[in-house]
Design goal:
The complex is a heterotrimer of chains A (202), B (622) and C (103). Chain A is mainly alpha-helical and 202 residues long. Chain A has helices at 19-44, 55-58, 61-86, 90-120, 129-160, 169-194. Chain B is globular, with a radius of gyration of 25 Å. By secondary structure, chain B is mainly alpha-helical. The chains are: A mainly alpha (202), B mainly alpha (622), C mainly alpha (103).
């Protein structure tokens, strides 16, 4: 996410690959360890809370499925945004960027209401191990999503100011890589934290 | 670029000109950033050294009260934190910065402004970590900060909060640097420099950077969890809620073990450069040394619970980690034998850099041997938490890393400053440090086996440890004297008016010696094409019919600063602004949310300014 | 370089928007299947492996197609999959050490 104004002045790289794309993939590889450690903590403490509420008491699988679906579709809109700028379609870029940001915001809104509901059902951050591990894991995921929304909106604004040229599609691609990663982390969280509790929900 | 960005507002224009102190604040030049890292890390090294001296004074005799027990706990905790995070790692970074682009034939690193950010975040993080000395107390629960001792119940003082926030900042600095060097090394090598033609220091930097990129996120999570427990009452390590304090140990050491390889691999890389130069022979077994380094990096992930043999993991887990730990000794042994092979039949020059590298090998072997004894859980059951471990640590980290890093200082100081460090004073430094180090740390092995625990404030005379503790303290004093010799050497040499080093004072083998000392800001007038390992040596010498190197006329270093119009990355305010924003955010979490808000805004301002900044300076030519 | 040349793509051609929509529909379908099967009690004995397979399929599709990893230089795969494998390894090792697999 650096200079937007470079033209073809960069010297050739050893691999022919762009530095920034390489660093984004390296960053995503390391972010796997960040989320992996948080997910590991959740799983290690699963079933070990001394007091409730427990996951089966609060989870609403259909509700969360909808928000998982929303985030998945936001990956589609993101990739359509990239396809748009790659063919020079500025309007398409704006539509799909806005759609992605909107879906992301709906996801965050859904998270917010989910947390409020859990809280009203007695699950706070400090209530038990479930609250601690759940809110911190999903909270940091939500923070990642929020940061992504800010980036997307920034590009949207820049597009309206005529500052996203087709040659700069790499910037959108990098934003997309970050966005899809946040989506795949949710795929893992949705299955490993939510879905596995469904049989326990009465 | 103006065509796309329109008129560049004044506040976004990149500062121009390279003069004065301010140019250091806005620099993105890897050589300058390296110097900043070097000076700062050596300064922190002295801070950590003073902390060590006070510890040794306190332990010089039984029943001392040089400081209070509370301060003593903070001293040994901060000594370790300072030496590991604020001295060794950044001093290694200093060399990554100064040397890597020059060794691979590049003009800078892949992300110069990110490089600057790494330095400033390190500086501010180091200051935050040390803020406790002035405000509320420093961390005093050991550098490894085991739960539940570090909970707000048992350690309510501010110290552990500085620990969490300081280390989080330092983690960001390290990760940014790691990403930078991974991309630089993969993507900015001179034509012809395949991976197996890279200098070994570059290889070790690469492996270290990959370790940093993968291990740091784990400690980040552990620190976040500790911070949440302390500040928000979560239960990650709270046994009363069913939490498991041992989770901290696992997460910490999953990071902590790769961390020790992060501490030693750069020094091994330095030694692998110095030995061939001063033996006037190529490195013996280059592929073995490279693959050993890779194997060490990889295996470093598989041994972490050898730090936990006495917590009750059970015989199966203990046995598994014993096997992996014994295995990881092998590649280091391979390296040692290859280093010896390099020296064998070489035409050895006992210059100061060489002495420190030879010292490294001897002392690291000793540290490694005690390490192998820890690999056995029954033996470790006696050694754990005794001074035997302290002895091991200091042989590998002081005898190993520090000696290796000093070898690098004496080796590359001429390249950075154009001046040689004094040989006489250098040798005096080496010998006093070598003798002092052994006098200080050798006795710790048998005092530890005799039962002296670690981290104790004092001891009774009846234990029989008095004499050897006094000996250790004397050794520490000798080490301190050697540092004064070094400082003297440094200040005298750096102020020499004559640039007596020249481009290639050691008749060395790698590309960083092929241009003037100090290098021009663009490094290479022309990026070289590389045809083999030891690329610079091949430029200088052809192999004669009898195998003796024959100098190639005009193959040597270019000492002429050619006037070429090479566009270099422009200076920038935004790395330090962003770093300041991060510093306000993290310290604000300990003070007031308003400070956090300001910090976040400043960081965003810095990041956006960075993103929209033009690539080069508004005016060209300087 | 701002653009990657065609020499850096691997197998297959660059997906079209239509292809992306098809993949999204498949992802949606898999999600629906996942949600349905957790309520089918008779599947409980094999629920975990089934969910694992389905989720891994979704993960792989997003990474390979939406993130274009299938068509890009192998180096990117090494960087990402390396981190992913390490994370998985640490997770499995920790779960083993904590006895999660020994019910």
């Amino acid at each position: 996410m650096s200079q937007l104004s470079h033209a073809a002045e960069h010297p050739p790289t050893t691999t022919g690959l762009d530095h920034r794309k390489m660093v984004m993939w390296a960053f995503l590889g390391s972010d796997c360890l960040f989320f992996g450690s948080l997910i590991a903590t959740y799983l290690l403490y699963k079933g070990k809370s001394l007091v409730g509420p427990y996951p089966a008491d609060v989870f609403n699988i259909p509700y969360t499925s909808v928000s998982a679906f929303v985030l998945l579709m936001s990956s589609l809109t993101m990739v359509l945004a990239l396809a748009a700028i790659q063919r020079g379609d500025q309007r398409g870029l704006r539509i799909w960027l806005a759609a992605t940001a909107l879906l992301g915001a709906i996801f965050i809104g859904g998270q917010y209401f989910e947390f409020i509901t859990f809280y009203h059902n007695g699950l706070g951050l400090t209530t038990n191990l479930f609250g601690t591990t759940f809110y911190v894991l999903t909270g940091f995921h939500g923070a990642h999503v929020t940061f992504g929304i800010i980036i997307l909106l920034s590009f949207l604004v820049m597009s309206f100011r005529g500052r996203v040229a087709p040659e700069q599609h790499l910037n959108i691609e990098l934003a997309g890589l970050y966005w899809h990663f946040v989506d795949v982390v949710w795929i893992v969280i949705f299955t490993v934290i939510y879905l596995v509790e469904a049989p326990n929900i009465v | 670029m103006a065509a796309i960005t329109g008129t560049v507002p004044r506040w976004l224009q990149r500062p121009s000109g390279y003069g004065g102190l301010w140019s250091w604040v806005v620099t993105v030049d890897h050589k300058r950033i390296g110097v900043l890292y070097g000076i700062t890390s050596v300064a922190f090294f002295f801070v950590g050294g003073i902390e060590a001296l006070i510890i040794r004074l306190q332990l010089a005799g039984p029943g001392n009260s040089v400081v209070s027990p509370e301060v003593y706990s903070q001293l040994f905790s901060m000594h370790a934190l300072t030496m590991i995070f604020l001295a060794i790692m950044p001093l290694s970074s200093a060399f990554f910065n100064i040397v890597i682009p020059l060794q691979i034939g590049a003009r800078d690193v892949a992300f110069p402004r990110l490089n600057a950010l790494s330095y400033w975040v390190y500086l501010f993080g180091g200051l935050l970590l040390n803020a406790g000395w002035f405000f509320g107390g420093s961390p005093g629960s050991g550098w490894f900060a085991y739960a539940p001792l570090t909970s707000s119940t048992f350690d309510p003082s501010a110290g552990m909060d500085y620990y969490v926030m300081g280390l989080l900042m330092l983690g960001i600095a390290s990760m940014a640097a790691a990403f930078n060097f991974v991309v630089t090394i993969i993507n900015m090598r001179a034509p012809g420099m395949s991976l197996m033609r890279m200098p070994v220091f570059t290889w070790m930097t690469f492996v270290t950077s990959l370790l940093l990129a993968t291990a740091m996120p784990v400690i980040t999570v552990a620190l976040i969890q500790l911070g949440f427990d302390r500040m928000l009452g979560t239960h990650f390590f709270d046994a009363t809620a069913g939490g498991l304090p041992i989770l901290w140990q696992h997460l910490f050491w999953v990071f902590g073990h790769p961390e020790v390889y992060i501490l030693i691999l750069p020094a091994m890389g330095i030694v692998s450069e110095v030995l061939p130069t001063f033996s006037r022979k190529p490195l013996f077994g280059y592929p073995f040394i490279v693959f050993s380094g890779i194997f060490i990096g990889f295996m470093g992930w598989a041994v972490w619970s050898h730090h936990m043999f006495t917590v009750g993991l059970g015989p199966v887990a203990n046995a598994a980690f014993t096997v992996s730990t014994l295995l990881i000794a092998v590649p280091t042994g391979v390296k040692v034998f290859n280093w010896i092979g390099t020296l064998w039949n070489g035409s050895i020059e006992y210059k100061t850099p060489m002495l420190f590298s030879l010292g490294f090998i001897a002392l690291f072997i000793i540290g490694g041997l005690s390490g192998v004894t820890h690999a056995s859980p029954p033996a470790d059951a006696q050694q754990q938490d005794t001074y035997y471990i302290v002895g091991h640590i200091h042989y590998v980290l002081f005898g190993g890393s520090i000696f290796g890093l000093f070898s690098g200082i004496y080796y590359w100081f001429p390249k950075v400053t154009g001046r040689l460090l004094g040989e006489g004073l250098g040798k005096l430094h080496f010998w006093t440090m070598f003798i002092g180090m052994n006098v200080a740390f050798a006795p710790m092995h048998w005092v530890g086996l005799d039962g002296m625990p670690r981290r104790i404030y004092t001891y009774e005379s009846s234990m029989g440890w008095d004499f050897w503790n006094l000996v250790s303290t004397v050794g520490a004093a000798v080490v301190a004297l050697s540092m004064l010799v070094f400082l003297w050497n440094f200040f005298v040499s750096v102020r020499k008016t004559e640039l007596d080093a020249g481009p290639d004072p050691w008749d060395a083998r790698t590309l960083e010696w092929s241009m003037s000392s100090p290098p021009p800001h663009y490094n290479f007038a022309q990026i070289p094409t590389v045809h083999g390992r030891d690329a610079f040596w091949d430029q200088k010498y052809a192999e004669g019919p009898d195998g003796i190197p024959t100098p190639i006329p005009s193959g040597g270093a270019s000492n002429v600063e050619e006037h070429v119009n090479i566009q270099m990355p422009g200076l920038s305010y935004f790395p330090i602004i962003t770093a300041l924003g991060l510093a306000l955010t993290f310290s604000g979490l300990l003070v007031h949310l308003a400070v956090v808000a300001v910090g976040v805004l400043v960081a965003f301002f810095g990041a956006y300014g960075w993103a929209f900044e033009p690539a080069e300076e508004a005016e060209e030519g300087h | 370089m701002a653009t990657e040349s065609a020499t850096h793509t691997r197998q297959g051609s660059h997906p079209t928007p239509a292809r992306y929509i098809a993949i999204a529909l498949i992802l949606a379908a898999i999600t629906i299947v996942e949600v349905v099967i957790v309520y089918l009690d008779f599947l409980n004995p094999v629920l975990l492996p089934l969910l694992a397979v389905l989720s891994i399929a979704k993960f792989a599709m997003v990474v390979m197609f939406f993130m274009h990893l299938k068509f890009d230089d192998r180096l990117f795969s090494v960087l990402f999959v390396g981190g992913l494998l390490l994370a998985t390894g640490v997770l499995v090792a920790l779960m083993t050490l904590f006895g999660v697999f020994f019910a």
